[in-house]
Amino acid sequence: MSPKYEKLQARIQEIQKFVSANFERDRKFKTVFQELEKIAACLKTEKIKLQIVSNNSIAARSLQIYFERHRLSQFYQVGLSSLPKQIEPVRSAGSATLVLSTSSNEKIYPLSTTETTSIGRNPDSEIAIDSSLYKKVSWNHAQISPCGNLAWEICDRNSTNGTYINGVRLQGCQKLQTGDRITLAASASSAYPEFVFEYSLTTEYPESLVEMLDCDIFCLVCDLATLTNAWQGVITIANAAPIAKCVVIGSIPSLTQVETWLRSQDLSDVFELVVLSLSSFSLQTQTSEINSVAQQELEKFCQSLETFIKGKPEDILAQRLTARIIKELSVIEQVLDREAEAIAQQLQQEEARIQGLATDDVKEQAKKALRKASDDKDKFFKQVKLELNQSKAALLDTYSKKSITYKVEEFIERLKPQVLKKGGFQYIQLRAENPVTANGNVNADLTYFCSHELKKWADKEWQLVTTTYGEGGLNAIIETVYKTLNFLPSINLDKSLFYSDRRIDIQKSLMNSFIEAPYEGRYQGVSPLTYVLKQIRANMMQFTFLVGFGAMFIGIRVSGGGKQVISSITQPLRENPILFGIVIFLLICLLTYTYQKDTTLQLEAIADKLRKELSNHYQSLSKNLVEKLVLEITTVLETEEKRLKDALEIANDLFTTYIIDIEKHQLLLKSNLEQQKIQLRNLDKEKADLQKLKRF
């Protein structure tokens, strides 16, 4: 082995030792180690690699056999492959970064291809700006988002002092171009951060194409009349690869077309054109002798290959293998750069966290939040109880048509009296027009009416308590208190401490059995005849006077005692039957009218008495039920008030525990910060060692 090969082999071993010590660090270290083993194995052969590529398998194989039988075999390792089906890159991966240059160093921030990157003084931003250095940058200043097709756009988030792209203030959003300068809160009186947007595109080719191009001499056997896109792609990629010599072998017609294309691409000086009788290879078997013309052409070509490597085979092989080694070292370098970048970002984040974990600020914020939440709670429940009592007073206001007392009285006034016979006696009973029970029990009707009306009122009141009273209701104050106390994302108060299944059991207050009020009275009626006789007996003097006065009015002279008066009056009536009949008829009508009027008045008097008793009873019952319903609502409110009070105490305990944890975490962060600084220094040393290994 030549000294140059020995030196290269020693360098490979040195790199392998460096790589093998970091297998657990990243899987790419093991991949690089495996590639280095392949490079070392290739070095041991000490042969130049000649790669034949063709779409004519017979001609290419025949050419390979000829080279292997020729004396070139002592210098060359001949490989054979067909034209790959996939020439285009497998994928193109774009990477975008923001570079922030400061007086002391340069910070690089990678941009995500899937998620939005926020920029601002907020420590939780993906790119957190140092508040002590750049005070005019807003808390949430701007954001950069991927917008498809490997592109990014920047949007200003209504910042106070604006975002500038290449000196022009940004209005809304704008797509970024590589090299754009992004300035936040540009000011002549204070410092401001300025980023540079950078974008790079990496291309990867199929593995078969990469292996095919890993050679020192690249021979394309082209026997096509037309140079296809696939051939053009292979030639273009081969030109960019670190290949010592590129040759296109073909017949006169095909080479003429190839030469024209190479000149159009400025590649005619790079690719050597060799004319061989490809048809002789295609017609002969792999083991037979080829004709003399082809023999001469081949011998001439082989001599040119011998001349090419004469005196410098080590340089050619070492150049290719060195390029491969540097490529693998670049992979390791990328890993180290990512690690360094990650550690640098962690350092920045840790420093920002330490600054953001000021216990004095947290203590003051917690104190203010607890005081505000407590004041809001007390104010709300005081206001709700006041509004609830006002609604209760309006419901019981006897002078209001909307009150329950008026509605009960109005309902009772509509009750109709009915005369019933039970046990040989007559009774006056009040009945509703549309009774809820089959037997027409007014107490059941009134109980249902009162319960129904009060349930509607209670449901409405509870709705107002939960959504309206106290400027938003119970739901609003609970949400307000929760948001006030939940200002620390790291604590994230459990909502179940504040929320519950708040319900009032209205039916429980209305389903009790109540004492019934009397709704019927005994009625002692008399027959019409009895009523007439009783009236005549009771009003005999008035009757005699009226009869006498009537007789005088009609011209009948009356004298003597009572019997004579009656006899004198009735004398004309006896003598005149028609007149007698008229008088009797009028007398019956008068008595009947009087009887009906007295009977109706008596019935109404009994009904009014019953109505009054019912009204007093159910108005009192309604007031009692209202008190129970208000008590039920008040009890639930007191429960919710206690729940919020307990939640405030729990929040206070959590804040206290959090502050203690912050102080402990600050010490831990400072310790981690020192360790990360040590890791960064060690990583810088490794990168420096890697740079030494790249010097061949």
Instruction: Give the rounded overall mean pLDDT.
Output: 79
Helix and strand content put the structural class at: alpha/beta
The total count of helices amounts to 18
Report, as a whole number of angstroms, the end-to-end distance: 18 Å
Globally, the shape reads: elongated
Keywords: Coiled coil, Membrane, Transmembrane, Transmembrane helix
Coiled coil: 333-383, 666-693
Domain FHA: 117-170
Protein name: FHA domain-containing protein
Question: Can you walk me through this structure?
Answer:
The protein is of the alpha/beta class. Helices cover 58% and strands 15% of the residues. The protein has helices at 3-20, 27-45, 57-69, 207-213, 229-240, 252-264, 278-283, 292-309, 313-356, 359-395, 404-413, 442-467, 469-485, 506-510, 528-538, 540-554, 562-575, 577-693; strands at 48-54, 76-82, 91-101, 106-111, 117-120, 127-128, 142-146, 152-156, 163-165, 168-169, 173-175, 181-184, 194-204, 217-222, 245-250, 271-275, 416-422, 425-431, 520-523. The strands form four sheets. Strands 4-3-13-12-9-10 form a six-stranded antiparallel beta sheet, covered by helices on one side. A five-stranded parallel beta sheet has the order 2-1-14-15-16, with helices on both faces. The chain is elongated. It starts with a helix and ends with a helix. Keywords: Coiled coil, Membrane, Transmembrane, Transmembrane helix. InterPro entries: FHA_dom, SMAD_FHA_dom_sf. This is FHA domain-containing protein. Residues 117-170 form the FHA domain.
